[in-house]
Amino acid sequence: MWMRVHLCRRLVQYRIFVNADMSIYLAIAMGGSLGAMSRYWMVTTTHQWLGTGFPYGTLSVNLLGSIAMGFLSVLLLERFHLSDEVRLGLLVGFLGSFTTFSTFAIDVLQLGSNEEMMKTIVYIVLSVLLCIVGALGGLLAAKQMI
Questions:
Q1: HSE toward the beta carbon, residue 12, CA cutoff 13 A
Q2: Where are the domains of the chain?
Q3: Cβ distance 2 to 14 under 8 Å?
Q4: What CA–CA distance (Å, rounded) separates 94 from 82?
């Protein structure tokens, strides 16, 4: 089945998988809503504590989310055999909306436009390296529990 939607004055078509269980979509939507609210809370709280001169909030959600994604992807797939709704609600919904590469990209552009190239480079390097190391750390910690 195809759905047609007008988006920005353009007709967009996309395929809807009618055979997919609707409870999975609802679990992802619920997780996504909670993840987005959690990201907003964490970013604003981090900015209150550390200031807005550096995108600490986005860095912290991406790092924490990467650790959680590595950790939970192992536990939920290899140790705890939970329903698809719970697993996808957490990994795709909650963590998918909690972490945000699009905000990272905007932060990089904003830092770069302020001619703060050193801060921009440090932020890019920290974000990429820490999040990869965080995901690896979460993955290894989960494997130790199995």
A1: 8
A2: 2-145
A3: yes
A4: 16
What is the distance between the alpha carbons of residues 42 and 60, in angstroms, rounded to a whole number?
8
Could you tell me which of 105, 101, 93, 110 has the C-alpha nearest to residue 131?
101
Tokens of 116: 């703060």
Sign of CA dihedral 133, 135, 141, 143: negative
Euclidean distance between CA atoms 100 and 142, whole angstroms: 23
Contact 79, 145 (CB under 8 A): yes
Rounded Cα distance between 14 and 20, Å, is 15
Q: Are 77 and 87 in contact (CB under 8 A)?
A: yes
CA–CA separation, 41 vs 47, rounded Å?
10
State pLDDT tens for residues 94-138: 999 998 776 788 788 888 888 889 999 999 999 999 999 999 999
Of 33 and 78, the structure prediction assigns the larger pLDDT to 33
- CA proximity to 69, closest of 146, 131, 124, 27: 131
